[in-house]
Structures are given as C-alpha cells and as structure tokens.
Amino acid sequence: MKVLFAGPSLSGQDYDRSGIEVRPPARKGDLYRAVCDGADAIGLVDGVFGFVASVWHKEILFALKQGIPVLGAASIGALRAAECAAYGMVPVGPIAESYATGARGEDADVCLAHAPAELDFMPLSEPLVDAEATIAVMDLTPAEAIALRLAANALYFADRTVDAMVAAAGLDPTFADRYRMARVRAKTADALLLVERLRSLPPGRDPIPEWAFVESEPWRLYLGELHQAAGRAETAA
Q: For the chain, what are the domain ranges?
C-alpha cells in the first residue's frame, strides 16, 4: 500500500491516484499510523501546523527504519525531506532540493492558508515559493518586480493574497489580473512530480538501513499515549 498525505498543494488537480491511498494533510502520528496500517511507501506533501502538532521527525525515522521509502515535496514534505535526507528520506522537486542544499531556509516560504477538507483544501493565500516563481515569469520592469517581491516577503503567509501583494507593492490593481494570468504553481508541480515518483516505486519495502533507531523517552511516552487512547476507544465502543 502506498500512502500520500496531500491537501492544498494538489487541490483541484485531476491526477492518477491508482495504487495510492490519499490521506489528508499529515499531523503528528499520521505517518506512524500509516506504517501500522501496512504502508510500504509514503509520500508526504502537505501537513498541518500551529493549532496541532506537526509531523514528527521521529515517526519519519521509524518508517525509514522499517525499510519504507518516504518521499517529501512541495510543502512540509519538502521541509522534512531536507531535514531527514541523511537518513534516507527522498527530497522530490526543486523546492525540496532548495531546502536540502541550503539555498532556502525559511519554513514560512511554503506556508499558506487553505479551506477545509469539504472544499478540497482550496488555497486561500499565496505561498512565497509560488509568488517568487510567478513574478519571475511576468513581464515586469525591474522596479515593478522588486516591489512585488518585497511585498510578497513582507506579508504574513495567511495574508499574502494576490490583491494584498499588489496593493502592498503600490501597483495598479490591474497587476492582480496580470499575476493570475501568469501564475506559476510551483508547489503543485512538485507535488505532482512526487505522485509520479511514488506510483513508480516497485512493490515491497527497501532493505533495512544500517543506522540505529533510538527509542527515546519522548518516543516511548508517545507510544504509551497512543495505546492508552486506543484502550479508551475500545472501552467506549
């Protein structure tokens, strides 16, 4: 079973999901549960943060130690892939590679606000990586391009809409339409690339890596909490 955690990066995209179980953006514990469910490959694209605990590096290492390929791209997947590449997690696409090489370092560059699952996680703001890619292909004067880049960087990720960027740059409102016509969805492109890489993986798990997985005290406490929660659920049922 191949498991893909995705949300806003693939919102509205018609892509081949054959052989892949698509799950919502990951939070702490979701990758561990995917391993327990029998996953033999995992693709991490989107994840939640802030209001709940994010995907834990330890659970990624746990999956890798089971010989399960874990690929990351586009969003929190790109961040975790760069952070866990030394242990075998695979960065997919230019965004993940930029974090892996150190060319990019800010987590907020891939953040955005989005709608709930009922609305297919529709993006409600512009991630900085998409804004930068779009500005790079627009027909702008150097002054206009600099103004838009500075505005995009200055805005809080949840407030970074197209109209807000244009207004903060001091440009005519018609630039918003020009931006939308030229829009480059860099995160979506990388997410689709990960889907293809995930689908192309052969069935079965990889050889067990040689590095040691250390069952730290936080990890043991976490597993204990999961087992207690499972016991409560069984009792309630």
A: 2-107+187-236, 117-185
